[in-house]
Amino acid sequence: MSQLTTHILDTTAGKPAAGVSVVLLQEKQGQWKEMATGITNADGRIPDLLKKETVLEQGTYKMRFETSAYFEKNKIRTFYPYVEIVFGITSAEHYHVPLLLNPFGYSTYRGS
To answer: Scanning 17, 18, 30, 87, which has the fewest C-beta atoms within 10 Å of its C-beta?
Structure first.
C-alpha cells in the first residue's frame, strides 16, 4: 500500500464514488506541483496513488477531487465542480484522506 491513500463515499447514494479522478499536488515555494494522479476504483478507493517505495517529504500537499464529472455521469447537479483538501505531511507514516461527498456538501478527516 502506498504512504498516501484515499477513498470517496457518496453519502447521498450511500455507496462508494467510483471513477473519480484525483490529483495529488505538493506546495513548493508558493507553487503547486503535480505529484500523482489516480481514479477511484469500484470501492471508491485509490490504494496505489504512490508507488510503495515512495516516501513524501515533509510539507504541504493537496488532493484535488474532480467531482463534477462524477455527478454529471450520474445526471446530478452539484454545487462543487471539484473539492480540494489541503493537508500537511510530517512523517513517513501512512496517511489516509477520505472524502464524504454529496452534491451540496462534503467533509473529510484524517483516516487510518
So the answer is: 30
Residue 24 near residue 60, CB atoms below 8 Å: no
Cβ 101 vs Cβ 68: under 8 Å? no
Domains of the chain with bracketed CATH: 4-108 (2.60.40.180)
Which residue in 28, 26, 25 sits closest to 38, CA to CA?
25
Residue type, 3: Q
Residue range 31-42, pLDDT digits in tens: 999 999 999 999
DSSP 11-62: TTTTEE-TT-EEEEEEEETTEEEEEEEEE--TTSEETTSS-TT--PPSEEEE
